[in-house]
Design brief:
By secondary structure, the chain is an alpha+beta fold. The chain has helices at 38-48, 91-102, 134-139, 143-146, 149-169, 199-203, 232-248, 255-260, 262-265, 283-299, 310-319, 321-327, and strands at residues 5-6, 21-25, 30-34, 57-60, 64-70, 76-82, 112-117, 122-127, 132-133, 184-186, 192-194. The strands form 2 sheets. Strands 1-2-3-7-8-6-5-4 form an 8-stranded antiparallel β-sheet. Strands 9-10-11 form a 3-stranded antiparallel β-sheet. It comes from Anisodus acutangulus.
């Protein structure tokens, strides 16, 4: 019997790579794009989850369910099983984009190991982050108190660095399209990484940037109400909302509109924008939080061109001496005031 598996170099229109395999197993109808052996990865995940038994599910989202899986070849991984309605409609562009995402290696970005799909299952495989999403921690009364001001400032810096990298250093630039607390994951030490970069576009492929926006309600830029053109400035707006959410401990809601309006901004007090579950900040920490709030407000400006770039924001956060001072301190809870 002839081997029906085709490597990426045999598929017209796909780029080849030494470290990423794109395999088509025609006998089993399996498409895989992975830094690992795709067919083996598919089999191992089905075996480890007992074909996606609910007991292994650790969360659900708009595009699918997430499972925690222990593989023979890796430590724990997170597997996002896509909804049954998912379909690869532009095979070549989809595979090339997934390949590009699997090749990204950045300390502030969750590693994507690959993608597997056949008639029964389609899923993405990521490195596993022990503490899960930032959104779930902020909603938890006990866990949220472990996120002191130092940790929260560091998370904001990390997200800014990750977005700047995707916008500035990737060619072509990658727009996240759904930057929110649900897509910021934390490890055991509360170090943050951004997940699902570019996945929103992959799940709703289009030949241009004018496509259905898959962002989180309340976090998306206002211009998307009248245009579906997604740009880096949409990520900037969402970053501003996220930064305020991290400091407040919950979504800023109506404060977004108030802060974006110069005539109403002065009516907002600092205490209105900070998490009441934490001790009130003082001295250098207070100054840093005010600095970050001002940066976040600049991201919320209605006109996209008026917003700063993520490169500028990350530069400001890395160059400000007070931000550098407090984020270099050993992360520990602030004393009670």
């Amino acid at each position: 019997m002839c081997d029906q598996r085709r490597r990426v170099g045999d598929i017209e229109g796909l780029d080849s790579s030494d470290d990423v395999d794109v395999d088509v197993d025609e006998d089993n109808g399996l498409l895989s794009i992975s830094t690992l052996n795709g067919s083996a990865l598919y089999r191992d995940i089905l075996k480890a989850t007992k074909e996606f038994d609910a007991m292994f599910c650790i969360g659900k989202g708009g595009s699918g369910s997430v499972y925690k899986v222990k593989l023979p070849s890796l430590e724990n991984v997170a597997v996002k099983r896509l909804h049954s309605t998912f379909e690869v409609t532009h095979h070549k562009s989809f595979m090339n984009e997934v390949r590009a995402l699997t090749k990204i290696k950045h300390r502030n970005i969750v590693k994507l190991y690959g993608f597997c799909s056949n008639a029964q299952h389609s899923f993405l495989v990521y490195e596993c982050m022990e503490r899960g999403s930032l959104s779930s921690i902020l909603r938890n009364e006990v866990e949220s108190k472990k996120l002191d001001w130092l940790k929260r400032v560091n998370i904001i810096k990390v997200v800014a660095f990750a977005l700047s990298y995707m916008h500035q250093d990737c060619s072509p630039p990658i727009v996240h399209r759904d930057i929110s607390s649900s897509n910021v994951l934390l490890d055991s030490e509360f170090e943050a990484r951004v997940s699902d970069f570019g996945i929103a576009k992959l799940l709703k492929p289009d030949s241009s940037n004018c496509t259905a926006f898959a962002g989180t309600y309340g976090d998306v830029a206002p211009e998307l109400a009248y245009t579906m053109k997604v740009t880096e400035m949409c990520d900037v707006y969402s970053f501003g909302v996220l930064a305020l959410e991290i400091l407040k401990g919950k979504h800023p809601g109506e404060y977004i509109t108030v802060l974006a309006n110069l005539s109403t901004r002065d009516h907002v007090q600092l205490c209105d924008l900070l998490d009441e579950r934490l001790p009130h900040p003082e001295n250098e920490v207070k100054e840093v939080l005010i600095f970050i709030i001002k940066l976040a407000i600049s991201c919320l400006l209605e006109t996209p061109k008026s917003r700063p770039t993520m490169h500028f924001i990350s530069h400001m956060l890395s160059m400000d001496p007070l931000v550098s001072q407090i984020t270099s301190m050993k992360a520990k809870s602030l004393p009670e005031m």
